[in-house]
Amino acid sequence: MREAPLRAGLWLALALLGIGLVLPLGTVLLRAFEDAEGGFAGLANILAYARTPALRLAAWNSLWTAALTTLLTVPLAFLYAYGLTRACLPARPAFRAVMLLPVLAPSLLPALALITLFGNQGLLRGMLGGGSLYGPVGIVAAQVFYCFPHAAIILSVALGMADARLYEAAAALRAGRWRVFWTVTLPGARYGLVSATTVVFTLVVTDFGIPKVIGGQFPVLATDVYKQVVGLQNFNMGAVVGLVLLLPAVGGFLLDRWAEGQRSATLSGRAVAYQPRPRPARDVPLLLLCLLVAGFLLGIVGVACWSSLIRFWPWNLSLTLDNYDFARFDAAGWGTVWTSVRMAAWVALIGTPLAFGTAWLLERGAPGGLLSSVLRFVAGLPLAVPGLVLGLGTILFFNHPANPLGFLYGTLGLLVLNSLVHFYTVPHLAAVTAIRQLDPEFEAVGASLRVPALLTFARVTVPICLPAILDIAVYFFVNAMTTVSAVIFLYGPETKPASIAVVHMDEAGQASAAAAMACAILGVTVAVKLAQLAMAGVVERATQGWRAR
Amino acid sequence: MQRRVLNAALALACAMLPALASAQPRTRLTVYTALENEQLAPFKQAAEAAVPGVEIAWVRDSTGVITARLIAERQNPRADLVWGLSVFSLLQMEALSMLEPYTPAGAEALRPNFRSDRSPMTWTGMDAFVSAICFNTMVAQQRGLPRPGTWADLLNPAFRGQIAMPNPASSGTGFLTVAGWIGSMGAERAWDYMTKLHENVQVYTHSGSAPCNNAARGEYGLGISLDMRAVTLKNQGAPVEIIVPTDGVGFDLEGTAILRGSRNMEAARKLADFAVTRAANELYGRFYAVLALPGVQAAVRGYPAEFEQRLVSQDFREVALKRDEILRDWAARFDGKSAPRN
């Protein structure tokens, strides 16, 4: 096998991740120890941070709201996932689809919907009993909505893999239902629970959209970074807060890695897939719960879309499309939506071949070596880096006067690079998983027939993995459409994405227009997701027929 | 199969390429501004029609953010021009030698207090705006709030938790309001007033329009905001009354200036020339009542009469040079209640 071109591919991936991730993060680290004039400040910034009570308060607020959200979200998501995988529920595909809805919208959408429901003029404000939505109440409620699918996806995968023989053995030993649950089901989903917990906790600590819209005067870390950088242009203090923000994320990442290492193979080759049998005492309550959760998710999205159609909240509730005339609220008008679509399409177009190609090179192409190990490590890193910190590092790195890449500053190219790197880990892992499922014999047979490895890749590997590739492309697209935190520092005069326009409209108090823009984004992502489902059927028939016997 | 997918992907990529590498025959001016969003499109259209060969790329944010950004970028300026920025910020930038001295053609015709006193000039004025109270009559009725006529009335305990005010660090409106209080009451009484007012304030917002927008939506009973936002909302049918307090209001000028180090100096000068013309002032008059060029009739309706008399007399330069100090003081006293991003 000619290795040189394959290695070149690995170097390309490493270069992109290096420029887009490692160097910007390094810049953040350096800036945290610099004074305003660029000299070495030692620990002065960090001490100044520790001495500012308002900043310390923000760190504490972030921690406890994240912990509370995790405590609420993970059990709820567990029950929902349990219902989907271990009970006999009708319309399971529909429940699965509704579960994904929050992922398709920017995180600001639930916050805007909650204001319509529970704000000072909200329809249901009486339910708060005189308390205020603005602050921790609103943050936690909106975060539960936003984080729910992330936890539910992980847990439904974890609960979906069960060995029926264990349950048969437990039944033979006359174990009661609770005992089976505590000794078989929960241990089986243990690592999924650890994963879901760290993911939700990290999401809440690092999300910026929700506290921005609904946080009121309640300071949290994510809004503090923003305040320091955009409001005060104090990049060094922003870098310090960014480092503090990095701590829980890296902690969660390490915990997850540790749990991953503890996991032995849960499913051996002889496992028998568990099939739930109908049992009303279990199915009916779970169905009710799933209906309740799905209704809540749909209701929040519905309220947001309804509020985007209202002429003048709350005095004139007649419906209108005026709020979708975005040029009235933001100079770029609908242009921001097209900017987002273009950016997301580029991220998907470049990111998909890059992630898949790199994963293949790592698994099957150029074996071993230091380069591969470094690349594997770097590809896993973005998951642990909050968008705000990555965005801050990117602006500091690319706006440095000595950087020859400075021409990228404020261009669509930089937004694309940043989003690609920011969302790289999950597609990378998905591609690795898809490729590992393939028998290495394909390459061996190809090599023995003297077919070049790249040809085997194009003729066999890619078609077989097409459903996974489609998943990766849609993942890149959807995340690039909805992201706020990283790009908020990076857009230029001509390249403002729609998600940022939502922030700006909300900032100016144009809540209906902000909701309209959030719904426009949701419309695009839902359309793409539906297109994927439609295409998946075709692709399935064209490329996956051989799997059936 | 994969060839078809590849072809489709290639075709899509080609279709998107022109967008990335669009040709630019006109000179593109990067203009930093704190104008209101709905002003941007008409201003761009009018300027590009009047000054051929120039294209405007706006960078818009609240006054404090744009000012901080301009100052942070001063080693490596990205803006050619500022058009629609508070005179306090312009004078602060003048003191840092960031403004290009240039007297636009016809600038002498502007009211003397609406243009730079240097020669050549460093900035020219556009219009004046004042802080005003947006008072939601509907909410007032529901919650039994009295109608405030003066700043002092806002200290009434009935308004506890009912007031939204812009944060002066980010919002130009917020700063001119604070500057107005300091100007009319004197520093000591003004800080004392703000400390008492703080008890009634529910939130300090990022932008100057947000308090009025939120008061119009009834989220708060009243918002301290800028006159233009209040007038626009009232004209849209919001249940707000615009109150210009009778015990003196701060006012601010919006102005135009060229940045030293602009890479498109010639085009920037042409745009600065346009900014002082009668046509440009008529444009400003669609939103504001007090204009830089005498004799231009403002087209905007709904402004309270006689409000010019309520303006406090103000030494812009003196306040501008103290801007940082005032903001530091303010943040130390009241920052806990700010909305995120201030």
TrEMBL record, chain A:
* Compartment(s): Cell membrane
Q: Tell me the keywords, alphabetical order.
A: Membrane, Transmembrane, Transmembrane helix, Transport
**Could you tell me which InterPro entries the record lists for this protein?**
AminoethylPonate_ABC_perm-1, MetI-like, MetI-like_sf
Q: Which GO terms describe its cellular component?
A: plasma membrane
Regions crossing the membrane: 63-82, 94-118, 138-159, 180-205, 235-255, 286-309, 343-362, 374-398, 404-426, 468-491, 511-531
Q: Enumerate the SUPFAM superfamilies for this protein.
A: MetI-like (SSF161098)
Q: Which superkingdom, per the lineage?
A: Bacteria
Q: Among the record's GO biological process terms, what is one?
A: transmembrane transport
Whether Membrane counts among this entry's keywords is yes
Q: Topologically, how does it sit relative to the membrane? A: Multi-pass membrane protein
| Sequence ranges assigned to domain ABC transmembrane type-1 in this UniProt record | 59-256, 337-534
Pfam families reported in the protein's UniProt record = BPD_transp_1
Recorded family membership: Belongs to the binding-protein-dependent transport system permease family.
NCBIfam families xrefs: PhnU2
- How is this protein named in the record? Iron(III) transport system permease protein
This protein's species is Belnapia rosea
From TrEMBL, chain B:
Gene Ontology molecular function: any one = thiamine pyrophosphate binding
Q: Which Pfam families does the UniProt entry name for this protein?
A: SBP_bac_6 (PF13343)
UniProt cross-references to InterPro entries, sorted A to Z: ABC_2-AEP-bd (IPR017663), Ferric-bd (IPR026045)
Q: Which UniProt keywords apply?
A: Signal
Matching CDD domains: PBP2_Fbp_like_1
- GO BP: thiamine transport
Q: Which SUPFAM superfamilies match?
A: Periplasmic binding protein-like II
Record's Gene Ontology CC terms?
A: outer membrane-bounded periplasmic space
* Signal peptide (residue range): 1-23
Q: What is this protein called?
A: Iron(III) transport system substrate-binding protein
**Organism of this sequence:** Belnapia rosea
The record lists the lineage as: Bacteria, Pseudomonadati, Pseudomonadota, Alphaproteobacteria, Acetobacterales
